[in-house]
Amino acid sequence: MAGTKEIKTHIESVKDTKKITNAMYLISSTKLRKARADLDQVRPYFDALQAEIKRIFRTVQDVESPFFYPVDHDTNPLDGTFGCLVITADKGLAGAYNQNVLKQAEKMLQEHPDTTLYVVGEYGRHFFAQRGIHIKKSFLYTAQNPTMDRAREITDILLEEYVQGKVKKIFIIYTDLKSSLASEANVTRLLPFHRSHFDAPAPGEKAFTEPIEFVPSVEAVLNNVMRSYISGFIYSALIDSFCSEQNARMTAMDAANQNAEKLLQELSLEYNRVRQAAITQEITEVSAGAKAQKAQRMKKKRQQGKEKEVCTN
Predict the structure, then answer these.
(1) Rounded to whole angstroms, how far apart are CA atoms 263 and 268?
(2) What is the pTM of this model?
(3) What is the Cβ-side half-sphere exposure of residue 92, based on CA atoms within 13 angstroms?
């Protein structure tokens, strides 16, 4: 059994760890609120872009664009190279957040081995590097600082590969924060889009009947708008993943705090038991020593009494 000194040292260690996990919880909650606010600020702009794309298709239904499936059919053959943007975190300590995303990535690689990986986050980069899986491009410092500029940088690289025909389809694997209690790793086809994705009118959207003039052409306008829309989609995925990471870390740190509290209670009880046992042992030893001394004095007195009797006789 550990002594009081060892238990007390253990208690101090748990308290120090609890301070760290509590600080990480507070930091994650602050980052989560800020990221949600940033996303809410840019969401109206990309909602407006989506509405304009719908207007273009309603005005010119047979417009062609490399970002969409052709008008005559909605599917492409599954052969060819796929591009996959995998969004992970730079750090761990976030529950199953990273593992859920990487499981989806491994599943895609098994189903379609000819897949080119583009990875956001140090966790994902180390994961694939340890398994000898080639990464075409790793975007550093993006997971902890998702900005619109970084989303545009990723968009430019992916679109260059797509337009040049190096990849036939582009997928994005990210974590969608559905609520504070639930998040899900999603696999979404980023390119090409189905035209039906922009057919349904948004709630409260007004129908426009006025003719629209496109300069220099409807294809050029659509392609330019689609670049901005794809950047917004990637930015939204980065923010959603970042929010999911912070929420998962908050949950993990909260569980760690609760476990620390439980461990502290158990250690306190053990410390009190060991301390009480030590006190009881000390009292027993003192009591036994006192009895031994008393018995020794009594024995000495009896001996002295016997010596007096001998001298008298």
Answers:
(1) 8
(2) 0.77
(3) 6
Q: How far is CA 220 from the centre of its chain?
A: 39
**Residue-wise pLDDT tens digits, 8-46:** 888 888 888 888 888 888 888 888 888 778 777 777 877
Instruction: Please state, in angstroms and rounded to a whole number, the distance separating the CA atoms of residues 37 and 54.
Output: 27
Close Cβ partners of 31 (under 8 Å, ≥ 6 residues apart): 242, 246
| Cβ atoms of residues 194 and 74 within 8 Å | yes
User: 217, 164, 154: which is closest to 190 by C-alpha?
Assistant: 154
230-252 pLDDT tens trace: 888 888 888 888 888 888 888 88
Query: Length of the chain, please?
Result: 313
- Residue whose structure tokens are 């990875």: 119
List pLDDT tens digits, range 170-226. 999 998 877 666 778 888 888 888 777 676 555 555 555 566 676 777 778 888 888
d(CA 66, CA 219): 10
Angle in degrees, 0-180, between the axes of helices 97-111 and 122-130, rounded to the nearest 10: 50
- Omega prior to 66 cis, within 30 of 0: no
Cβ distance 253 to 27 under 8 Å?
A: no
When mean pLDDT is compared over 82-96, 108-122, 202-216, 261-275, the highest value belongs to: 108-122
Residue type, 173: I
Among candidates 146, 99, 154, 151, which has minimal Cα distance to 123?
99
Q: Name the 3-class secondary structure at 95.
A: coil
Backbone angles phi, psi at 119, to 5 degrees: -115, 135
